[in-house]
Amino acid sequence: MTLVELGTGAPLVFVPGLQGRWEYARPTVEALAEYFRVLTFSLGDEPSWQGAFDRRRGFDAYGDQIAAVLDQADLERAVVCGLSFGGLAALNFASRFSDRVDALVLASTPGPGFTLRPRHQFYTRVPWLFGPLFLIEAPFRAGPELKAALPRAGDRRAFAWTMLRTSVRAPLSASRMAARARMIGSFDAGGACSRISSPTLVVTGEPSLDFVVSVDGTSQYARLIGGARAAVLARTGHQGTLTHPREFAAIVRKFVVENRHAAA
To answer: How many CA atoms lie within 13 A of 234 on its CB side?
Structure first.
């Protein structure tokens, strides 16, 4: 299996989003690595994972993958942080392996009861259309958020160029992304919340700027998970962990440190 490790300090497992490749979250991973020993990877159904993965197990397969990452790194416990789709994988793991989770961080994660928009449901049934249409929609969907998060045009161009270079180095699979998108509705996120005993942080952008998942939906985790805290990345939406990675990493560090002191 292919495991990426950066930084030193308390261990933190970072689970990437729907794209499946960790490289698309590199700015976030590098920012977290300023405070943590970050372990990350591509999702198990990506060829670059090069490890065991049983897609028939649904989200349990992703939870099993996180367990395998901890085992490979010879770690009993870690902070587990999931971004968007990866948040559901992190939630699955924390609900099944609570004794291995020091803290759980859910960032812009689809909320309980999340359903795809009708046109996206259609896209996922025809993956050969899903990729091109997803890419065509992306600038229109992310444009308002990026203007708020990165007011300078030069910064927006640099961000777009970084994502473009990543797409060349870490090609996306429309069929795998479509399969993951279809899986979201099958996961009993509400039921998983009832089994979470770890300190939990729920991070969102601003409601008016997340055009991918509903902030209100993500915020439900802060109500459904006992003792969970909520934090908002100002002037961001779904891409906040990428456009403001240092701010996100600082929020996570503060949460982990406070919980460590509270448990002492």
So the answer is: 0
Q: Are 249 and 35 in contact (CB under 8 A)?
A: yes
H-helix segments, the chain: 26-32, 59-72, 85-96, 118-125, 127-149, 153-169, 174-183, 189-193, 215-224, 240-243, 245-263
Residue with tokens 């259609």, as numbered in its chain:
122
Q: What pLDDT tens digit does each residue of the chain (264 aa) get?
A: 689 999 999 999 999 999 999 999 999 999 999 999 999 999 999 998 988 888 889 999 999 999 999 999 999 999 999 999 999 999 999 999 999 999 999 999 999 988 877 766 766 777 666 666 566 556 556 789 999 999 999 999 999 899 989 989 999 888 898 899 989 989 999 999 999 999 999 999 999 999 889 999 999 999 999 999 999 999 999 999 999 999 999 999 999 999 887 766
| Residue type (1 letter), 20 | G
pTM attached to this predicted model? 0.93
Position 110, amino acid: P
Angular region, 235: left φ>0, alpha ψ -120 to 50, beta rest: left
Domains and CATH numbers, the chain: 4-114+187-263 (3.40.50.1820)
Q: Quick one: the chain helix, strand, coil %, rounded to 5?
A: 55, 15, 30
